[in-house]
Amino acid sequence: MSRYLDPEESTKPYKDPTPLPADVPKVKELGVTSAPLKSAAFFLGAYCKDYNEDFMLCKSENRDPAHCLKEGRRVTRCAQDLITKLRENCLAEFEKHWNCLEYNNQEYYHCRKDERVLNKCVFEKLGLTKTIPGTPEGKTPIHEVKNPVFTGVQK
Amino acid sequence: MSTPFRQDMPPPGGFEPVKYKRNLPLRGPSGLVILGGVTAVCAYGFYRLGKGNLEKRELQREKVWSRIHLVPLLLAEGDRDAYRRQQAALEREREIMKDVPGWEAGKSVYNNPRHRSSESIVVI
């Protein structure tokens, strides 16, 4: 009786047979694919710094998934919040940048033009800047270099 | 039949002068120029290579940090799912072993409180 049932062909909507226990508060999962996440990564790091660090400190205390559920929910809610704000304020720029990433092997250096527009918009609307930790002192961060060696091929 | 006598003479205007000077036509740029040119091209290439290497390092740093910023988010999501599976497995074990007296569901085989992820999961 263990026949494979394609969820696409199912008439009933999928119901999780083993949901989370009822005493754990529900949180909507982010449901964002890799390219938008990569596009928003540095803003996420800046916007949710406190929650992220709290969560990682908690994880370093104990690797048990049950130990940091509360902190994890905060991280996810913060990310939800940021993505919503990004979509409210800079929808066109955001979509353009992550589509560029999607089509260019998810490499930042192919999409500098769209990235600068997005960074400018996010800075003006949300006040978040992209900073790469560990960049050598006194050097231009790689995303602001005017004439880089590595650029998109034939574009 | 006899031809009249004729003295063999130089061509009119005289013989052309004897070519005794060395004839060496120009054969392209000198070795020194070629050597210099090749050196210059190589030097520029190595300069670009060095620049590119420095830039590659920064690009790698950018990529790594973009991933580091996403770790807590993905880990939190994965943890919720791991916790759900853990609880479901516990429930199943309790149901299966309910007739065995003294059975502790979910008890680790190791005498160590450190968390270990389960060796097998039920994909549902």
Automatic annotation (TrEMBL), chain A:
Any one GO biological process: mitochondrial electron transport, NADH to ubiquinone
Family assignment from sequence similarity: Belongs to the complex I NDUFA8 subunit family.
GO CC terms in record: mitochondrial inner membrane
Compartment annotation: Mitochondrion inner membrane
Region (Disordered): 1-20
UniProt cross-references to PROSITE patterns, sorted A to Z: CHCH (PS51808)
Record flagged with keyword Metal-binding: no
Main location, first listed in the record: mitochondrion
Biased composition (Basic and acidic residues): 1-15
Protein name: NADH-ubiquinone oxidoreductase
InterPro entries: NDUFA8 (IPR016680)
Automatic annotation (TrEMBL), chain B:
Alphabetic keyword roster: Coiled coil, Electron transport, Membrane, Mitochondrion, Mitochondrion inner membrane, Respiratory chain, Transmembrane, Transmembrane helix, Transport
InterPro entries the UniProt entry points to: GRIM-19 (IPR009346)
Coiled coil (residue ranges): 73-100
Annotated Gene Ontology cellular component terms: mitochondrial inner membrane; respiratory chain complex I
Transmembrane segments: 28-47
Location in or out of the cell: Mitochondrion inner membrane
Electron transport keyword on record: yes
Domain of life where this protein originates: Eukaryota
Topology term for the membrane: Single-pass membrane protein
Function: Complex I functions in the transfer of electrons from NADH to the respiratory chain. Accessory subunit of the mitochondrial membrane respiratory chain NADH dehydrogenase (Complex I), that is believed not to be involved in catalysis.
Family label: Belongs to the complex I NDUFA13 subunit family.
Name of the protein: NADH dehydrogenase [ubiquinone] 1 alpha subcomplex subunit 13
Source organism (scientific name): Dichomitus squalens
